[in-house]
Structure formats: structure tokens, C-alpha cells
Specification:
Helices cover 82% and strands 0% of the residues. By secondary structure, the protein is mostly helical. It has one domain. α2 packs across α3, α3 runs antiparallel to α4 and α4 runs antiparallel to α6. The longest helix has 23 residues. It is elongated and about 45 Å long. The chain starts with 6 loop residues before the first helix and ends in a 6-residue tail after the last helix.
């Protein structure tokens, strides 16, 4: 018998899927802006941004399927994102993402680890 997915994880996943779709649309619509940000932080940044979006989507699929690896992956992505943004001193990070983004990631991670034993 499969474990029932808690409503908190369902909500996080739906919001995560919507956020990923919006990120992909923004990347495609504002590719020049993403490349400009990459020019100020380094040529690798636009590829990094696209990779993080794809990896975040994969993590949300794992959350939806109630897989333990998804919590670990999401946590790793959050830590990598914070380190990269601190090291690059990205003003874009602080202005558009900043504290609220970190709090939301912490909530997702907390919910994931709270439900970790229910996952496969």
C-alpha cells in the first residue's frame, strides 16, 4: 500500500510546479536579461540558473512521488544557491529573492524532513 501524500507536500509541489513553469517562461522571455546578469557575475551564471531551475523541478517531482532523495536534493540545491549568491555577492539575489526566498526554502526543507519517514 502506498503512503498517502500529506496536504503540505501536495501544496508545496503544486506551488513548486507553478514556480518552475514561471521560471522557465521568464528564462525564455527574458533570455537577454538572464545573459546580462551572467555577464556581470560570470558567463557560467545563466547556465547555473537554468540548471538550478531544472534540478528544482526534478526535486518537486520526487516530493510529489514521496521520495527521500527529493528532500536531500532540495536541501543541497538550497545550500548551493545560498553559497553561490553569497560568493557572487549577487544584488539580483538580494533584491528579488533574499530573506523571503530563504524562509520559504527552509519551510519546504522542514516539511520534507518532518515527513521523511513516510517517504520511500
Amino acid at each position: 500500500m502506498e503512503n498517502k501524500r500529506p496536504w503540505t507536500i501536495t501544496t508545496i509541489c503544486i506551488l513548486g510546479f507553478i514556480g518552475t513553469a514561471l521560471s522557465i517562461l521568464l528564462i525564455l522571455a527574458f533570455l537577454e536579461t538572464v545573459q546580462t546578469i551572467g555577464a556581470t557575475t560570470g558567463a557560467w551564471y545563466s547556465s547555473y540558473f537554468m540548471f538550478m531551475t531544472a534540478a528544482g523541478f526534478i526535486s518537486m517531482i520526487g516530493f510529489w512521488m514521496m521520495r527521500k532523495w527529493s528532500v536531500v536534493l532540495y536541501t543541497l540545491l538550497a545550500v548551493i544557491g545560498c553559497v553561490v549568491n553569497i560568493v557572487t555577492d549577487s544584488e539580483v539575489f538580494i533584491k528579488s529573492y533574499g530573506f523571503l526566498g530563504m524562509v520559504l526554502q527552509a519551510i519546504v526543507i522542514a516539511v520534507g524532513f518532518y515527513n521523511f519517514k513516510k517517504m520511500r
